[in-house]
Amino acid sequence: MLRLDKFLANMKVGSRSQVHEIIKKGQVQVNGKICRTAKQKVKESDEVTVNGQAVVYQEFHYFLLNKPAGVLSATEDRSQKTVLDLLKAKDRYQNLAPVGRLDKDTTGLLLITNDGQLTHQLLAPDHHVPKVYYAMLAGVATQETAEAFARGLTLKDGTELKPGKLRILSQDFDHDASEIEVTITEGKYHQVKRMFASQGMKVLALKRLSMGPLKLDENLEPAAYRELTAEELAKLKGSAL
Prior knowledge:
Blueprint: E1 2-3, H1 4-10, H2 16-24, E2 28-30, E3 33-34, E4 41-42, E5 48-50, E6 53-54, E7 62-67, E8 97-98, E9 107-113, H3 116-123, E10 131-138, H4 143-151, E11 165-172, E12 177-184, H5 191-197, E13 202-211, E14 214-215, E15 225-227, H6 230-239
Parallel strand pairs: 9-13
Antiparallel strand pairs: 1-4, 2-3, 2-5, 5-6, 7-9, 7-15, 8-9, 10-12, 10-13, 11-12, 13-14
């Protein structure tokens, strides 16, 4: 159960002070009765209305963001823009955070939620949730590169990685360049970039395409976002078990 003022503030009806004001004015009803007490406890199942409009409580929120380059995957930063800064004021619910991190210059799919349990399940190493990335490379990825990825790479600092899957999309031997898709089940620091560096290649552009069953919505422009559909959320939770 929640206090009425917190219930309304959490649902972005207004700031805590604004919520107190509308409660005092008798604009809030709980189960059909006017309530002027901010401290009154309400359940998620209670019928709460503000000026006749129903306010349905939703504890967790899930947003699919097409992350642009130049934005930090963080909740806050004093000097740089973060992914939470891309959310509209009405969507900035308490405790929202990105699920994992994409490098500042990496683009693509990023899930933002305040569901801590789901976040933990998606990021837990033993759950092996696959993540697919598209990359443009300086250097030509070959079948030998794919075989090395499939065996599991050892990075220059000695870090041993789980096997990954490399799919070569294009090879340009004249310009020493290639395009690939890579699937990994870990999320180590700068992992994809370090994987290719260990093979003598450099990642020029990196975009995350999917995380488990959740795929990037190509209709979303960079920096745009939307809520997950019920189907997407159900599949995502199923994959994290």
